[in-house]
Structure formats: C-alpha cells, structure tokens
Amino acid sequence: QLGLDMEELEEIEEDAGLGNGGLGRLAACFLDSMATLGLAAYGYGIRYEYGIFNQKIRDGWQVEEADDWLRHGNPWEKARPEYMLPVHFYGRVEHTATGIKWVDTQVVLALPYDTPVPGYMNNTVNTMRLWSARAPNDFNLRDFNVGDYIQAVLDRNLAENISRVLYPNDNFFEGKELRLKQEYFVVAATLQDIIRRFKASKFGSTESVRTVFDSFPDQVAIQLNDTHPAMAIPELMRIFVDIEKLPWNKAWDITKQTFAYTNHTVLPEALERWPVDLVEKLLPRHLQIIYEINQRHLDHIASLFPNDVDRLRRMSLIEEGGTKRINMAHLCIVGSHAVNGVAEIHSEIVKTQVFKDFAELEPEKFQNKTNGITPRRWLLLCNPGLAELIAEKIGEDYVRDLSQLTKLHEFVDDDLFIREVAKVKQENKVKFASYLEKEYKVKINPSSMFDVHVKRIHEYKRQLMNCLHIITMYNRIRRDPANVFVPRTVIIGGKAAPGYHMAKMIIKLINAVAHLVNNDPVVGSKLKVIFLENYRVSLAEKVIPATDLSEQISTAGTEASGTGNMKFMLNGALTIGTMDGANVEMAEEAGEENLFIFGMRVEDVTELDREGYNAQQYYDRLPELKQAIDQIKSGFFSPQEPDLFKDVVNMLFHHDRFKVFADYEAYVKCQEKVSELYLNSKAWTKMVIKNIAAAGKFSSDRTIKEYARDIWHVEPSDLKIPPPNQPREAAEDQTPNGTAA
C-alpha cells in the first residue's frame, strides 16, 4: 500500500555481523530452534558497535573497512537501562575479618539491549540480550582528577571501548588485554542477570535474606559456546564464595552442575591460553580462584595416579614453561558436568586425542551433539521455490520436523518432480548469475556448473587446493581446446583475518588466477572464476540456493563440524568433500555413493604424519601439479611481480600442515567424476533429491532437542502459546516448569 518493494527493503537492512564464522552463525540458528521448541532460553553476548569488517577487494587484495552497522539505527533492539549492571576490573584482593574482598576496582557499566527471537508460528518470543559498555557518570571524576574535567569526560571512551569492536579472528587465539576484558565483561554482566532472575523467582527462596542456592542447577543451565566465556566458572565461584558466603565445596558442586562446555575446534593455535600475569593484573581474585580450583583438581589426580608427574603436568589448568598460561579448555572441562564436540568424528578426536587424559578420568562427561542449521532461514527464507515444491509433495509440517524430508525418497524416480527440482535450481542460478553480472561485470553462463567454496579463508579449509584444481582445468582447456569440457563457474568467497598473512596471499592468488582465466579468449565461457567479495549471511542466502557443487575439502580431522555443508545439502547442491566434520554423517545419511568423497581419512593423515609428509614427492610424481606450481612460482599469474607468491609456494613445499599436495590427485580425479555426472542432468538431479531427503538430521531443532534432553534436562514444549489477543486461562495450567538455558 505504501508503494514499497519488500525485496528492496530487505536489501537495505544491514547484517548484524556480530560473529566471525560458524560459531556465531550456529548460535543464531540455536536461538531460532530454542524459541521454536518453546524453551525458556536466553542468548547472551556483546553488542559490538563494529561487527566483522566489510571486505573490499582492491587490485586483488583484501582491504578491510569498519562495519558501522548501527549507523542508521537498529529497529529490532530495545535498550533496557533499568537492568544496567556494574562490572569490575583491576584492583586488589583484601583478606578481612568478614572474608575476602576484591577492592579498589575500576567499574564499567553493562547496558543491556534486548532483541526478540520469535519461534516459528508458535507465539513464543524469546530474548537475545546483548551488553554494551558504558562509563559510570563519576568515571575519572572521583578522587584526584578534579583538575581536568574535559580530559576526564574524554577518557570515558576507554571504558566504553570494551564493546567497540569484534575481534576478527576465526579459529585463532590472540591474547590481547582488550579481548580478555570483553570475555569477562559479557560473563560478569550475564551471571549477575541470571542470579537476579533466580532470586526474583519463587525458587530463590530467601531465609533471613540469605538465598538458598541448592535448586540453582535445577533452574539454570549455562552452555559455554567454546572457551570464550570460560571466566564464567571462576566468576560464579566468586559470587557464591565471596558474596553469598557459601562453603567452597557446596559452591563448586553447584557451579559444576550449572555449566556445560562445547568444544568447537581442535586446532592448537585456536585454543585460548591466557598469560597468568595478564589475568593477575585484570582479575586478581579470579586468578586466586583458578589456582584453588587447580590445586584441588591436581590433588584429586595425584590421589588416583600417585607419582605420575607427567600426567599432572598434562592435566593442569596452568601451563608452566616460558610464560605461565591458563589453559581455558582445561578450566571448562574441570568446571562443567558435560563436555561435547560438534560432530561424531570431532567428539571422538576430543575424547581420544585432545583431552584424552580427562576422558579417561570421566568418560561419562564426554558427549557428541552434531551441529545443525535452522530450516526457517536456510530453506524457507532463502529458497522459497524449493520449500514450496517440497511442501506440495509432503505437506508443510517438515518445516518444524525436518526428519519428514525422508518422504521425498518416494519421488526420486518421479520424472515430473525431477524436472521441477531442476527447474527451481535453474531459476535460482539465473537470478544469481544476473546478480554476479551486475556486481562483477563478468558474463556468467547460467547452464554452467556453479562450483562454490564459501567460508572463512584458512589454510586448513584448503582454498589453495581448489585454486590448484582451477589452474589444472585451465591448463587442460589450453592444451586441448576442442575437447569436451563441462563448463564451470567457480565461486570462492570468504574473509581472511586481517593479521593472517597467508590467508591474504591466498585471496590474492585466487584473484590473480581469476583475472587470467576470465580474460583468456581460448577459455571463453568454459571456465569462469569469481572471488565473492564480503561473504556474509545475506550473501550466503543468495549463493547457496544457486549452487550445484559444494566444496567441503578440509584436511580430515581439522574441521570440527562445518555447517555450510548442511546448508548446501538442504538446498539441492551435491558435495565434494573429505571424510571430515559433519561430512561423515552426511555421507552416512545419504549413502556415501551420493556424495563425492575423496582423499585421506583421519587414519591416513595420522599415518602420513608418522612417516613424515614430503610435499616434493607429489610434485615430482604428478606432472599437472608440477605445471600448476611452476606457473605460480614463475610469475605466470603475476607477470609484474614474478615472485609475489613465493611465500605460498614455500609453505606448500616446506611447512604445509594441511597436506594440500597429498590430496591433490584424488581431488582432481573426483572432480572428473563430478563433471561426468553433471552431463547427465537427470542422474544429477536424482542424486540431489536423495541428498535433500537425507538432510533432516541436520536441523538445529534436532541438535537442540539433544542438548535439552542430555545436558540441560528440560523438556521442549510444542504447546502453542495463545496469541496476546486471546484469553490465556486455558493454557495457564499446562505451562511446564522448566529450566532456563
């Protein structure tokens, strides 16, 4: 009625880019599922003023720009100054007659902003509460600063910098003081909020003003999303012991029963290890508490394994040698009642390798919870054509119960359905092709295979291996232009952490190869390469429905789960991938013959490590690999600067932890099988339908039901709350009392 176009409005809205990659996106899917399952759950985090940087590609290089996402305001959030809370930093610890006190601290205020999280068609609306840092009004004006009022007000920025910007590292730990401040800030504000809510409820029954906390773990479950909020463990202990005056053992028992920890990576460079000196300066009382937790933990180990000093060293929360550091993963394991990985293979690696000693001690503590994605965003919203087609065949209930997709198996041989699925994919491709032509001024052949590799740029994700395949295809076309070649549009996208030199070189290399390939008249429309600028959720929603081939090619044992893999599967793409992360379970669900699985398994990687990986031997044995590497090395792709990529080549030969050359041959052969199948449109689409029919397991609704049942001990409720304009009495007596997660 206002003459506005909904799609145009959607384009204008900024992404809330408050995460780096899979970890942040997973949390968003989980919030959607928790609301849809009617769980009384809250998502807590930081309201960053600047989210993940906007990526510009200039002359083939990544350039970062600040993401000023709040510039035009955010209509979905509501500031809640009435729930503002103090957070303390620095200071010192005092032993007084009445107990231990943390004094002379600097105070920062945490101002909550609430964003509604609606469940799917069930009238449930949960809350995501994000904290913003504010300086108190007397900041720098009490005590000696009376003279310089102007400077004191300007210095308020120092306190408010805490929520200024998201650290842009994915799967990498950077031990900066501001980052530790952010981690403690969100934890301290959130725990105060949780305890305030607990005390206000009928469960926090007070006797002579002292709260009884016995029922706390029955009413509150806190899930630690990786180790980033690990300081919650000593913080809750501080509240119980120092403020609520509980005895240590009781406080520790309640704390352990409250927390559960999800591990999201096994890469050693990603594990958080905070220097003791930094923690001592910023959070002196918490360091004391961590030492006490560690002492009791090690005493227990020593009683079970007398004289095993090496075990004590391995299992300590404190790493000695060089600068003393706190191993935050060890703190999380010791302080939680449940620990989980995010795919079956990952949880197995967590138990048998990374945290082997801990799993031997308490095997019942370790679980698996395979990740999932919300079908609301990742099918209904982004691919309405496919969602509607599925609904015509099996009804609309699958949106809340994705396991019903198995009913599509009945239609695998239905010629009309096969044509309709192919038609929806083609429409999505045409739409995305016109978007690409508008944005990149490259002519795209919409009948070419859309081969897509989108995720954060990291050596372990092996965008370089994809790049070598592109060069190999290019060389084959040049060698024999008359040969039948299945046309491809290869799309690679993702952000590199600003300080990650190798990842930035990989982006430059891809763009250099793209420049050459896209401008070679011999190649023409047979092969196009696009580096997708500023990959983010809103762009994922465009590219995923248009994809034919999904690239999931990490070295086996490095990608904890992956969730992009699931999004592609649900949207009618086929997967080329290694037996890593959730790919393993995708192959299990769909049948290994319906994915393009290649390369080393975890056992092969371990074996190769044992005998020593020698990149040179693959280079010497494989002429096409040699040709591609020689071209990169000689400046074929960078004639102005022949040794531009010397660091990349040197890494591939001498310190490639992720063994690109070892899987190159199997990858290229597997890609040939992909091209062969693509020539047979009907056989390809049948395989697509089999994949969609097998994608039901990968709904985040299933994941959250498992967390609720096995870790939080709450029952999902499929009761539809009556809408606000209807009387509530009827529903009142069937409202279950449950834990808030």
Fold and architecture overview:
This protein is α/β, with parallel strands linked by helices and 741 residues long. The chain has 2 domains: 6-368, no CATH class; 384-698. Helix content is 45%, strand content 15%. The protein contains 30 helices and 24 strands. The strands form 7 sheets. The chain has a 6-stranded parallel sheet with strand order 21-20-19-22-23-24, sandwiched between helices. Strands 1, 4, 5, 8 and 9 form a 5-stranded mixed sheet that branches. It has a 4-stranded parallel sheet with strand order 12-13-17-18. β2 (54-58) and β3 form a beta hairpin. The radius of gyration is 27 Å and the shape is globular. The two termini are 42 Å apart. Mean pLDDT is 95; it is low at 730-738. InterPro entries: Glycg_phsphrylas (IPR011833), Glyco_trans_35 (IPR000811), Pyridoxal_P_attach_site (IPR035090). Its EC number is 2.4.1.1. One of its GO terms (cellular component) is cytoplasm. Keywords: Allosteric enzyme, Carbohydrate metabolism, Glycogen metabolism, Glycosyltransferase, Phosphoprotein, Pyridoxal phosphate, Transferase. This is Alpha-1,4 glucan phosphorylase.
